[in-house]
Amino acid sequence: MPHGIPSRSLAPINLVRGITVLVTGYFSMSRVPFSPTMASADRGHVVNTGSTSGHLVYPRGNVYSTTKFAQMNAYVPPKEES
Q1: Statement: the pTM of the whole predicted model exceeds 0.85
Q2: Which band of pLDDT confidence, cut at 50, 70 and 90, is reported for residue 32?
Q3: What torsion, rounded to 10 degrees, do the Cα atoms 31, 76, 16, 12 define?
Q4: Exposed e or buried b for every residue in 42-75, given b needs 16+ CB within 10 A?
């Protein structure tokens, strides 16, 4: 996804690509390959690092910040799952 372009100027395909890479890719890769082992052992830790973009929106970065917010909250389970 081109960085620093106002979201209204992004071609829809670039928006889809950015979300696919930054959100869908994150969810996919964060479950491989250790998840089956952790699931069978019923224990383990996942450490995710993030960026301030998940907390703050800066000029021309709202789409990127949205994807980082999604990543930041990926492993905050709802009460129902705890």
Answers
A1: no
A2: low
A3: 180
A4: eeeeeeeeeeebbeeeeeebebbbbbbbbbeeee
